[in-house]
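SEQUENCE-TO-STRUCTURE ENTRY
===========================
What this section holds: a protein sequence and its matching fold, both as plain text.
Question of interest: how does this chain fold, as expressed in backbone structure tokens?
***
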Amino acid sequence: MFGTESSLSMFLNTLTPKFYVALTGTSSLISGLILIFEWWYFRKYGTSFIEQVSVSHLRPLLGGVDSSSPSSSSTSNGDADTNRQSVSECKVWRNPLNLFRGAEYNRYTWVTGREPLTYYDMNLSAQDHQTFFTCDSDHLRPADAIMQKAWRERNPQARISAAHEALELEDCATAYILLAEEEATTIMEAERLFKQALKAGEGCYRRSQQLQHHSTQYEAQHRRDTNVLVYIKRRLAMCSRKLGRTREAVKMMRDLMKEFPLLSMFNIHENLLESLLELQNYADVQAVLAKYDDISLPKSATICYTAALLKARAVSDKFSPEAASRRGLSTAEMNAVEAIHRAVEFNPHVPKYLLEMKSLILPPEHILKRGDSEAIAYAFFHLQHWKRVEGALNLLHCTWEGTFRMIPYPLEKGHLFYPYPICTETADRELLPTVFHEVSVYPKKELPFFILFTAGLCSFTAMLALLTHQFPELMGVFAKAFLSTLFAPLNFIMEKVESILPSSLWHQLTRI
């Protein structure tokens, strides 16, 4: 211990005043750079970089606990609530605008040889069919018993054969549904089968409606018949929309929503919004949004981006980023920009598809809200509506990236909505065919090059100063070797020039 202290005192005594001047100057320079960087980072992100790094990265590594939490029990409850919220928000939903498997998805496979649906997606559809189209009393009717097995079949041909077998026994609505979805090769053929299903489904619905209160078994049967009838009417409306009879489709959707107002889980209003946009009936679109864009109802990309489209429509035809930067944004323009920011924060994947910065694929049968799958499903049907509004895509292009500068850092905090779920990427990889589609991930804020360059330069300078102080002779040798290597190409060029040019001319050039 005494030897260490004596060597330390000897080292300090040998230091010259120049060293202390250089050390002070270097420390001041580095401190000034850190101060400038911290000020810039605070202006851009609204928080301290050093504080952010210490809280987000260093504290978990050191095993620190947030001292602001009142008790461990409240912390555990908060973590449980966060985990529960994350799981609930990563729930997979049925795509309200999903295509017909036989008339559209299979046609894509015939043309390209690619499977547009993943096994996970089709398995979810099979579970939906078993939930909505079957009940415990199916064994009482032979056709329903056959269809109960058919929905569990993995092989499409086996399902189709079972549906035909059920129809040989009686008019079975679910058998017609299966054939319309999977065997029909055109929308017109699917519509014809759905009309037959409607006739059979209405009869079953009326019979079960009269008996629904007699027992729990009849209640389950009536609930199943209700689901079947709603599904048939909705798909018939979608057939009319695809065949160009949009006004008829709107009427069918409105009647269906009035007849079954409690079945909001089917999200029929999203089909209605798309059809009204096709008719350019923006007043009715606004009326539907006023009803469903409520704080107590779950949001969707269709709700958020349609609201943004209507706000943008009021100003997009005359919007100019140069003029807006000179005079500032008007009230209407500010409302449109805020609506776009709100939509982008809800689902940040949509703008790249609307702006055609990323290629579209066929939407899956299920979507994950706020995920890439929902963005594809929305853009696939709504891109034409954005193109129809003059200047709307230009306004989106000029403003959508500004959203990420408004969201508090780190991004998981959220701003207008609950935090963005971290499980979306994993679920989207299950829902989307990753073989020919690159799954989008949530845009991350990256450190600018200046910050990385400054940090690297400061670290490199400090390391050189330390090495030079510890090993002055060795560092001198390395410095000479580095400089000689650095100037070797220049020396080589100079030698070539001397050998080519006459000595008298070279002499005159050197004198100049």
User: Anything to note?
Assistant: Confidence is low (pLDDT under 50) at residues 58-89. The CA atoms of residues 353 and 492 lie 54 Å apart. Strands lie at 92-94, 366-368. The radius of gyration is 34 Å.
